[in-house]
Amino acid sequence: MPDVIAPPSVRALARQKGIDIEKLARDIGRTSIAREDLEGGGEAVGAPQASTADTSFWEVDHAQYGPVSEEPVGRFAQVAARNMAAAQALIPAVTHHDRAEMTAIEALRKELKSEAQARGVKLTALAFHAKALARALREFPKFNASLSADGKTLFLKDYVHLGLAADTAHGLMVPVIRDVDRKGLWQIAGEIADLASRAQARKVRPDEMGGASATITNLGGIGGTAFTPIVNPPEVAILGITRTETVPVWDGTSFQPVQMAPLDLSYDHRVINGADAARFLSYYAGLLADPRRMLI
Fold it and tell me: Which residue numbers are catalytic?
């Protein structure tokens, strides 16, 4: 099994609890271990326990109601499901919805199309979203933080790493782009394409997973107008994006067609309050509305 990725604080806590972190990683089928995985004396977070979770109502003979077939759930998907269930159960999450005008970004992408072709880089809107999110995380430090398992310590990060949720044939993967705030748009676009391609081929390295400041989950290529993404612990926020659409916007005299991207920010309410979330997305949307400002 590849080397286990865990922050020094998590390794120290594992030693205090007498947990073999390498064995734990093998047991839950994951190479990235967070504090939450150490809860319950080393049991995988979200794994139902007889004393705490009654799952008897799921034990149903579905065949009595009609024809069924069985399909085994892969280990990768089982681990992801346990982690998401744990996050949903442990984090008091709220989702704030907003929209960002994408007219200027689409115009800039069109302007840079020939340069993108010359560079061999596909300049997607997601690259602009990543750049804007990195700037917003620097502007609002509490969003670039993690809360300790006991809720008594907030770890403020002096780096900006972004997780990119990828829908793959073998389940959800979240590879991470490091130091996004210190990289240019072309480099970000290239790394997004590279990670997405290797995620599909299951070639993402262990050191390219974990340690994100926040995560972006982008459904823009599929559809939808809004959703409520689940916060990916130990992060405190996740940004969901759906398909950009043209909507009528009143300019004071008439309605004008404007390209808008729906934004869905889920956040840990123990760390972030609603007013801060509204300010965060307003700042973020402002960067997207005037992309040249964030590229300086």
Answer: 269
